[in-house]
């Protein structure tokens, strides 16, 4: 049986996710939309490749290194002088995984900084009144949400960010305050130890989260678009009826708040 092409699978999954977005065809025919689509494909591909790089290459290499050191110690004529615990021998493995979280968070930071810029370009093209407010500013003005602080609103981004900060500022120890409730059980005298299976699962969840953020940005842009005078004429007839526009806006408003856990 022929092995499934991972790039094909990734692309098809992205198209499936994009197709759930209103006016998805714009990402294929409009130059800016296509630029946005290619950006997301590139970013998601990077996350996928990054996860595989660690899980399939770096982690096995660290395990192999640990086994080699154990073997060397076992057959060393000076082995009676070595008093190294199993935990200490496995530190290289756990350090590799911790560094994986550091790199993952920096990739997420880059994504969350660059995506709004492209989204702004995309929606400015639909702006009839030339008064489009950049998405980050609009979120703050309309919903009192600061995009850079939303990492604490989602368990996956909070987790990745916290581990990253512990590695960078606490030498890998789980001491960065405040300590998330899901890590209260960790021994503060021991460095964070996570398995490669958990790292892989977290990277997959982060990719899903990125797609959710993308869809949310489309909703935010559309919500702002509805404030324009000519917007109602572009809607389907059923939304042009009296009261329907307001109901639609209320629904989108609630959706945005729920997406950012800001209700």
Structure characterization notes:
This protein has 263 residues and is an all-alpha fold. 68% of the residues lie in helices and 0% in strands. It has helices at 6-18, 26-29, 31-74, 86-89, 91-124, 135-143, 155-170, 196-225, 231-234, 237-240, 244-259. It is elongated, with a radius of gyration of 24 Å. The model has no long low-confidence stretch (mean pLDDT 82).
Radius of gyration (Å)? 24 Å
- Compute the separation of the termini in Å: 49 Å
Tally of discrete structural domains: 1
Number of helices: 11
Secondary structure: helix percent: 55-70%
**Biggest sheet, in brief?**
none
Q: Report strand %.
A: under 5%
Summarize model confidence as the mean pLDDT: 82
Low-confidence stretches: none
Q: List how many beta strands DSSP finds.
A: 0
Shape: elongated
Secondary structure: elements and pairs:
Elements (H helix, E strand, L loop, with lengths): L5 H13 L7 H4 L1 H44 L11 H4 L1 H34 L10 H9 L11 H16 L25 H30 L5 H4 L2 H4 L3 H16 L4
Concise account of the structure shown:
With 263 residues, this protein is mainly α. Helices cover 68% and strands 0% of the residues.
